[in-house]
Amino acid sequence: MAPRSEYPVISMEGAGAVLLDAADAVFSPQTQERVWAVAKALRQVPGVMETVPGMNNLMIVFDPVAIAPEKLERKLDAAWHNIVPDAVAGREVEVPVRYGGAEGEDLAALAEHFGMAPEEVVRRHSEAHYSVAAVGAMPGFVYLSGLDPSLAVPRRAVPRMKVEVGSVIIGGSQAGIMPVTAPSGWHIIGRTDITLFDASREPPAAFLPGDRIRFRVERILP
Fold first, then answer.
1. What is the tens place of the pLDDT at every residue in 121-131?
2. ∠ CA(161), CA(164), CA(165), 5° rounding?
3. Using CA of residue 145, residue 151, residue 156, residue 157, what is the dihedral sign?
4. What angle do CA 25, 81, 63 make, to 5 degrees?
5. Cα 112 from Cα 191, distance rounded (Å)
6. Which long-range contacts (CB under 8 A, 24 or more apart) does 197-203 make?
7. What pTM, to 2 d.p., does this model score?
């Protein structure tokens, strides 16, 4: 049987949105490049209002008066199977991080869980090469692929109700940065002063899909 990612599931999400889900058990950078390319192509279709890339999936928001859902689904399916994705030429951005201490309160516990010294967790986190796979969930939030597999960890069973803006976090096989103070079940290992979202800026989000991020160790706090 062919992998599921070769045959994405397309489904309606209410009257004005359709979801293409190509996610498999493991995140695929190649699938994500196809998601970006299809999102770009579908933005040119009359009646499409917005395309929202996710992690190996794509949401299309459309006007059902301007384009019939069945027609949009056919265009989406054809684009997925026929498009030749180009590698997104994103920027390379360095993000300074203060790891541990009060600003990375889960670092010590995670290090114990992994059977590593906190410094080794920091090394593996900061030496990885990350790509912004998607932006969403909250304004400016980045889903980062590229986390060292040895640092993959389930999210917290009980989310915190307040995770501070700038918190550098990991959850599952992904890394992220909090753009605002908000609830989250991800684990906090550090903090950065970079502003991820500013409504007065153009574009308001600091990072876009395809950007590449390197975390730089500013210091490790006890």
1. 999 999 999 99
2. 130
3. positive
4. 95
5. 20
6. 197/139, 197/140, 199/139
7. 0.80
